[in-house]
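Lay summary. Proteins are chains of building blocks that fold into shapes, and those shapes determine what they do. In this project we predict the shape from the chain. Here is one chain we studied, written as its sequence of building blocks.
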Amino acid sequence: MKVISYQIKLLLRDKMIIISFLLPIISALLVANLDEKLFPSESEVQFVCVKENNMIPKDLLERYGDVTYVDTVESLYIQVSDPSTEKIGIVMENKKYFVILSGDETSYIKSLAKILPFILKNDIMINYDYKIIEDNSDLFSDKRLIVSLIMIMSLFIGCSFNAINIVEEKEKNIDRVYSVIPISRSKILIQKIFLGFSGGVLMSLFTWIIMSGVNDSFLKILILIIVTSYFSSIIGVIVAKFSNNFLSVVVILKFILIMFMAIPIVILTLSKVTILYKILYFCIPSIPAFNIINNHNYISWNEYLLGIFVIVIHSIFWTFLIHSISLRSRCNI
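And here is the predicted shape, written in a compact code that computers can read:
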């Protein structure tokens, strides 16, 4: 217990650790307080209908947002195409509904547009069609993407904690003290992993609650945070094992962070049925983690459990690896 308290004191004295700890929280606070117009909510959804289509059930649409009527279809297209709005156009021709989007809406708006036939089915709906005026991807304008990147960064904290802490102990020759005190190498390793793990869990929980609160998918996110924070902590120990000084560990950590954040974004452009996607999904744990965070409200349990399974397998593999290296080496970590 004294060893852990001493290591915590060392962490609190390190400016890099404090900066790494505060960065995700500051980012989360900025996202949580951004102008809501950038990320429209359910209450801000706007529908545009043509006046002559008076058979469209206005009362049903008003449950989801405001309904505006225009004189012509051309006016409807102009309003929907306005990049400063998130309006959904609804027209009816030959007893068939047409839902019209500009193509640059957020995922929530597109999802709502797709389920409109289910909203309208208890009235006169006979057929349904879904049309996008322009094919503009909302990949980089969606709040979910920003939230996912900040969460990946916070999950990476455990890795930074362990790597920086262990390397600083090497530079100050503190690690040599462990060789003369009555404590096993395995116990030291467990303590190191626990520090990074607990720090990663706390940081990620704070970050998630600030940005998204405690919602229906909180249990899924909590399990993901626990599993991923452990994996991140293990990676931090491995990075420290092969780093001789502070400069080298910072370079390696930056490379890993960029890789963990950039690869999932690139993977989003690939189809999930491609061989490359499947290979990278099983080889890089940040991809299933990113996928779960980005789609936590919609992901199926099968896909969720598969992602957790991939991260757990990586955690077990790297745990056995660092344990074997630690036992064979002369130093304690």
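What the prediction tells us: Residues 2-34+142-328 form one domain.
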